[in-house]
Amino acid sequence: MLYAVVDIETTGGFASGNGITEISILVHDGREVVEAYETLINPGQEIPAYIETLTGISNEMVVTAPLFGGVAAEIYAMLHDKIFVAHNVNFDFSFIKHHLSLSGYDLRCKKLCTVRLSRKLFPGYSSYSLGKLCNALNIAIHDRHRAGGDARATAELLTLLLKTDLEGIIVQTLSRASKEQVLPPHLSRTQIDKLPQVPGVYYFRDQKGIVVYVGKAKNILKRVCSHFTGNNSGKQRQEFLKNIHSIDFEICGTELMAFILEAAEIKRLWPENNRALKRYEQKYGLYVFEDQKGYMRLGIDTYKKRVPVLYSFNSLVEGHNLLRRLIKEHKLCEKLCFIQKNRDACTGHNEGKCSGACLGIESAASYNVRVKYAIEYLSSILPTFAVIDKGRTEEEQSCLLVEQGKFYGMGYISYHTDIAGPEMLKSVLQPYPSDDYILNLISSHTTQFPQKKIAI
């Protein structure tokens, strides 16, 4: 069994937007290095000043070096039939696979990460960075942050790991059934093994325990593992994987509850790697206010987070349809409801449908009575219902409550609970913020499964 111990220097942290400036490959037979390859590479782009300071590799040094395409055949020949080994292997592998693919080569080989192996075989160290780990293990590093020096230190580390591995951990890691080689470098396999295969929400945390991503799943284990497959070489994915140190999860009775909990947790925690639901905002709301003449006025406006809203919706058409229904049912003034914006009397007055509030003929006190009735009517036509489904165990069932058109919350109740009304459910359910995204989820679900919806 031959290992290819690899180290590279690059112009930046992700493969798709950066080049390789130096590569070192040491072929290791399990006992010692038997073959070596090393070269500077012209990355085809400027080397940033901070990279030059770190590695000592300048633009002048690589100007006469070969482009990656010029040495791709040699690199592929050394790697394709060996086990690819590196300290934080997915970083080096993503770069080399990406740049080989640009030259027409498809690199497919097993990988070993000396960070992950060191955590298993040499537990208890405060840091597993190459420099600090080698210092703790008395492995000398010469030419730190140069490909050759770091590769030689990694090869010595591999030798020590192979000698220490008396329980066959490396063989297990390389087996087809093992997912070790695709996991982020700082995430232990034991955390993956604890994940259940049920619906729920999972949380990726960084080294400080801060949540960096929240996700929902029909099968938590399967969904979490899917994050680590593939070879996306983009900056976002590479930084994302590097920052994952631990995983928490919360089991949900149904996939719908997982969707809702995910949305609520993203709003609460605002993780740096969640983007789609952060952008979701209510678009419009129906509001009431009193003008300078004392008339209560209903109107549609863009959604305002800190202003009480009678009802919210995603489209102006939906809002205007609802407002026109209130105007018709309670003989409100279209002008005072901002449906008409001319200075004359509203068309409803001419047709006998408005009592002249727009002209000051009807008093504010009289008009406001009908506005209040309209608001009460709005509450009566907005639905109140529960969604009952399976729970986390056989002894319980899940329950979601929508009250007067707004999502109240969710939780779990006994199969023997008599659902007498919303107040009884509210005493046992966990409240959550309501928005149109969640209401649309519930609406779609109850349309598909109407038997789960119970009117209250």
UniProtKB/TrEMBL annotation:
The keyword Transferase applies. It holds the Pfam family RNase_T. InterPro entries: DnaQ, GIY-YIG_endonuc, GIY-YIG_endonuc_sf, GIY-YIG_UvrC_Cho, Ribonucl_H, RNaseH-like_sf, RNaseH_sf. GO terms for cellular component: cytosol. Keywords: Nucleotidyltransferase, Transferase. Gene3D superfamilies: GIY-YIG endonuclease, Ribonuclease H-like superfamily/Ribonuclease H. Residues 197-275 form the GIY-YIG domain. This is DNA polymerase III, epsilon subunit.
